[in-house]
Design a protein that fits this description.
Blueprint (H helix, E strand, L loop, with lengths): L7 H6 L5 H13 L4 E5 L4 H10 L14 E6 L10 H18 L3 E3 L19 E4 L6
Antiparallel strand pairs: 1-2, 2-4, 3-4
The structure holds zinc ion.
Amino acid sequence: MSNFKLSTRSEMRMVGVHDELKKVVRRAIQLTSVDFAVIEGKRTRQRQAELFKQGATKTMNSRHLTGHAVDLAPMIDGQIPWADKSKFNAVAKAMFTAAAELNIKIRWGGDWNENGRSDDERFYDGPHFELTWRAYP
Ligand SMILES: [Zn+2]
């Protein structure tokens, strides 16, 4: 059991996110070996369009639009260690352990298991977690 706790800001960023996914995140913070923050939850169409234009996403059919996705970043001394995939792996491990415990089906942008359908799936997206299309259409 970790001593990490979701910050108020992280909770605020989960407003509008599907309850089942929130449950997984709240359980994962208790299990994780590395602290993490919610960097994004539900997205407006306008924000999705901006990200699309910037090339930061390849899809306009993102699960963020419906509150079925969250982006989580490991936090080391207040910084996100973008280059260190092992830290993202650690967050993913906690998320999958929490999801299994709660019997909630998720997948991760770090490996895109579960044959999904989004155009984003060829790209490594370490912070991204979403409820599966199959269990949560
Ligand atoms: Zn995402």
